[in-house]
Write a structure and sequence with these properties.
single chain; 438 residues; 8-stranded mixed beta sheet; alpha+beta; 12 helices; elongated
């Protein structure tokens, strides 16, 4: 264990560094029924002297550092927090807990540490989404100290302000050893419920589709963050329940020394009441978030099928257009073939007739006799002409014949209507002229 403490110190100094030279400090001092709560800003050097000073009365101290946690430890140690290990040793906190702050993932730990010549000191450590915390409770002096490193996230200031406000409103409980974990449990519950509010879209009947897909994706991310927060809250509630059980066992033990003063006992009962209000709401709210996530995932599962259908429909439309183009091209090709055949027929008829006249029999009184093969050529020409005329693609066989025919009929009908209208206008003009002459 002694070898692990230097490693934890080294990991902490290489993973977390400051991004602001000043710190925020909240202090609660006094005894029942008077409590004094103050808030101020200190520099790093002032905070070191402030934490080293021994309090002469029950005191609660919260120090906030604005920090950055590296995803991977850097090669060189950051010196802004090099004084932290010595301060924690003086507060009775195990240095090993510093290494837990540098680890990825959410975690919470509460344990009693035995100190020579003193009562057990409660050590607290939390590695959460927006912040890291390490603290202690000394039952001898009834003093609590909490160091908080807020990380650069969107909810950084909101998280700290909620914790600070909760501590101010419940300052009567600050003498209890459960005050610090209770504050952070309330913050995790508040953050989880705030993120879980994204599921109200489903309650309002707003279903995900292509138009609001981005909005639903943001809601899904918020719900997943709420699930993580509820997991942290559940872990903290279990640790608090164990602390309450250990506290009750020690109080009921006949051989246990009365290590808790009356003020702390009264504060503990108030903390227990607050815990009994917060803890029962974790399970139903967490189940509600899981149901909302499953609902969104089921809707999202239908999107690929719908997109696939749209892509298939879109691919069918070009295919239909291609078929229409092919049919049109086929019609044009056949029309061209028909026109070519008609032209060939006309040329054939012209040349056959010319050949017919060229090989016509001579006059009976001519000196030159007729060709011996005249009648053979004439018969072949007649047969070929008859075959061509029989196989000729006449106008009704042309694909555009019906269209051309309808256009011609429409033009003929319009021309007839204009002609009849002109005749009626001439007739009415003549009648008017005759009436004027009369």
């Amino acid at each position: 264990m002694n070898s692990l403490r230097p490693q934890a110190r080294d990991l902490f100094l290489r993973s977390i560094h400051s991004r602001a030279p000043e710190c925020s400090v909240i202090e609660i001092v006094g005894s029942r029924p008077t409590f004094d709560c103050s808030e101020r800003t200190m520099s790093m050097d002032e905070v070191q002297g402030y934490l080293k000073a021994r309090a002469d009365q029950p005191t609660f101290r919260l120090i906030r550092f604005r920090a950055v946690k590296c995803s991977e430890p850097v090669a060189q140690e950051h010196q802004q927090f090099a004084w932290i290990p010595d301060i924690l040793t003086g507060l009775g906190i195990d240095i090993y807990l510093l290494g837990l702050l540098a680890r990825p993932g959410a975690d919470f730990m509460a344990l009693d540490r035995a100190l020579p010549g003193r009562n057990t000191c409660l050590n607290l450590c939390a590695n959460l989404h927006d912040l890291c915390m390490i603290g202690s409770y000394d039952p001898d002096s009834i003093c609590s100290t909490c160091l908080v490193w807020t990380l650069p996230t969107a909810d950084e200031d909101r998280e700290y302000e909620y914790i600070a406000e909760f501590m101010k409103q419940n300052k009567r409980l600050f003498q209890s050893r459960f005050f610090i974990p209770l504050c952070f449990l309330a913050n995790e519950m508040n953050s989880a419920l705030r993120h879980a509010g994204a599921r109200n879209k489903a309650d309002c009947g707003l279903l995900p589709d292509e138009d609001n897909a981005d909005e639903w994706e943001r809601s899904r991310a918020a719900l997943r963050l709420a699930r993580r927060r509820f997991g942290s809250a559940r872990h903290m509630a279990n640790a608090l329940r164990k602390l309450f059980g250990a506290y009750d066992s020690q109080r009921l033990s006949a051989f246990s020394a009365p290590w808790s003063p009356p003020d702390a006992v009264r504060g503990t009962e108030g903390a227990r009441d607050a815990f009994n209000i917060l803890e029962p709401g974790i399970a139903p709210a967490s189940s509600d978030v899981e149901w909302a996530l499953q609902e969104i995932d089921s809707f999202r599962a239908s999107w690929p099928r719908k997109d696939m259908h749209q892509h298939a429909t879109a691919s069918i439309e070009p295919t239909g257009a291609a078929v229409e183009v092919a049919e049109t091209a086929e019609v044009d090709t056949s029309s061209t073939g028909m026109i070519t055949a008609m032209a060939a027929l006309a040329m054939t008829m012209v040349f056959l007739l010319g050949m017919l006249f060229a090989t016509s029999p001579p006059n009976q009184g001519s000196e030159k006799g007729a060709g011996e093969n005249f009648w053979v050529a004439w018969m072949l020409a007649v047969i070929m002409l008859s075959a061509v005329l029989a196989a000729a693609p006449w106008p009704p066989a042309i694909p555009q014949y019906d269209q051309v025919k309808s256009v011609l009929e429409t033009a003929r009908r319009q021309w007839s209507e204009r002609k009849s209208l002109r005749l009626r206008s001439l007739a009415s003009g003549s009648e008017k002229l005759e009436g004027t002459c009369d």
